[in-house]
Amino acid sequence: MWTRLLRSTSDQDGVPDSVLTLTAIVLLLRPLDVWWLTPFALALACLSLILRSVRRAPITWLVMATLVAARIIVVWPLSDNHIYLLAYWCLAIGLALSSPAPAATLSTSSRWMLGAAFGLAVLWKGVLSPDYVDGRFFRVTLLTDERFADASLVLGGLSRDQMALNRQFLEPLPEGAALLEPPAFVEPPRLRAFATVATWGGLVLEALVALFHLLPGGGRIAAVRHAALLTFCATTYALAPVAGFGWLLAAMGLAQCQAHQRALHGAYVAVFVLIVLYAELPWAGVLADWTAR
């Protein structure tokens, strides 16, 4: 057993090296944020990028899954959703590389994990959260979450003064208290439309990703499966401030590519790089400053 876990798998097993490389990059770009865990995770991720024998050894990813799981336990219950998915994904890689059919095992694991994650997201948002489907979530978030502020200014048609007044209007007061002269609340039609598109556009895309990942089969089903996931990543993370989730989804989607699907392989790598640019280039802030002149 230990021999199998320590043995590096060959390139002929079909698991794309790029899947392992992108996953290691995700771990480097988003450290674990626990001082005594971070050095081990960063060192292992660096070794994975440098040494092929480390990158393709099952034990590497089983250890990494353990480190990520330890991080979840230490900061419980404050971990972002994608940290849980990252732990499962590292475990799936380790188990797949130690199996008789690594490529098929990892591809199937990726499909089911993505189908389950998106399916549960649709269940939570579309069925169990009435404040999401009626638009309240994004109508409030676009005004109160500083990470969406620039996008709300550019796409929602708000001025900075109106944004400040709206935040004062939405600021919670002690129970039973009320302002004698509450500030004005301004919600331009563009902002309301932006919230509606963000609500239903995201929900429909998530439902498509979930449905076609849970459906078995290749051909057209697989084509729609990849198209839905790529579209979700390319559009959602232009605004959503959780680039680590997008990078992880791109790596997981890449694991489902066949060896001959070079264009599809390149599309996932391109989306990964695009999400890096979304995270590092303040495009909405630049546009907001430019339009405010």
Strand fraction band?
under 5%
Beta strand count:
0
N to C succession of SSEs:
HHHHHHHHHHHHHHHH
Count of spatially separate domains:
2
Helix content: over 70%
| Mean pLDDT, all residues | 89
Give the overall shape, derived from the CA principal axes: globular
Radius of gyration: 22 Å
Enumerate the spans where pLDDT stays under 50 for 5 or more consecutive residues: none
Between the first and last Cα atoms, what is the distance in angstroms? 66 Å
Question: What's the total helix number?
Answer: 16
Structural class: mainly alpha
How is the biggest beta sheet arranged?
Answer: none
Report on this structure:
With 293 residues, the protein is mainly alpha-helical. It folds into 2 domains: 1-100, no CATH class; 108-172 and 180-293, no CATH class. It is built from 16 helices and no strands. Helix 6 runs parallel beside helix 14 and helix 9 packs across helix 12. The radius of gyration is 22 Å and the shape is globular.
Helix and strand layout, with pairings?
Layout: H1 2-6, H2 17-29, H3 38-50, H4 52-55, H5 58-74, H6 81-97, H7 102-126, H8 130-133, H9 136-144, H10 149-156, H11 160-170, H12 189-214, H13 220-236, H14 243-254, H15 262-280, H16 283-291
Helix pairs in contact: 2-3, 2-14, 3-5, 5-6, 6-7, 6-14, 7-12, 9-12, 10-16, 12-13, 13-14, 13-15, 14-15
In short:
With 293 residues, this protein is an all-alpha fold.
Task: Jot down its keywords.
16 helices; 293 residues; 2 domains; mainly alpha
